Amino acid sequence: MAETSASELLDVVDLSDTVVDSMSRGEVHRLQLPHRSIHVLVFNSDGKCLLQKRSMLKDECAGMWDSACAGHVEAGQDYAITTVREFDEELGVKLDATPEYLFKMTPTAGNGMEFAAVYRVYHDGPFAVAEDEIDELEWFSVSQLDRWVNGESAVTGAELTTGFGEIWRRFRQSDSQDQNP
After folding, report:
1. I need a labelling partner for 58 at 20 to 30 A (CA). Which of 28, 137, 140, 158 fits?
2. CA-wise closest residue to 39 among 28, 23, 47, 51
3. Which of 58, 105, 67, 101 is nearest to 86 (CA)?
């Protein structure tokens, strides 16, 4: 169980993403200190992106839609190791290698003061979700997510995490730059 314990130990980092201390997850969040996380954007063969509806048991952003796989980098670990571990823990899929690295977000109040390394995986499932982490998985088209993130339409009664919105905007910006040399 990667993210449910407030006593989980996380590395506190400075604004250069250099480790300066280790503290409990609860303290890091309470003090709003910069720390590390990962997010994995999962796409299927139809080009749709998988999102998770965070468990109502979560202490942060419960019931909100987020990246299909996300988690904190535990003290002493790195982004790559965490990505493979979290993918297995949350989605029940063992990856043979670290997924494709896309970019790293810098800490903001909106993303919980996290340096968030963002990766991409292509996978059609099936997935075996960690029920204490995820209430639901659903595939969304890129255009659906674009409209939702931009506030033009939403899934009825559902909200996106602020962090996912920041990640999606950056992903789409870099995606369009990659397609327009």
Report:
1. 140
2. 51
3. 67
Task: Please tell me the total number of residues recorded for the chain in this structure.
Answer: 181
Q: Is it the case that residue 101 has pLDDT exceeding 50?
A: yes
- The domain limits of the chain are 9-176
CA within 13 Å, CB half, 149: 22
Mean per-residue pLDDT over the chain, rounded: 90
* Residue 141 neighbours by CB under 8 Å, 6+ apart: 47, 48, 49
What's the predicted TM-score (pTM) here?
Answer: 0.90
What's the CATH number for 9-176?
Answer: 3.90.79.10
Write out pLDDT tens, residues 113-170: 999 999 999 999 999 999 999 999 999 999 999 999 988 876 655 789 989 999 999 9
Half-sphere exposure of 4 (CA within 13 A, CB side): 12
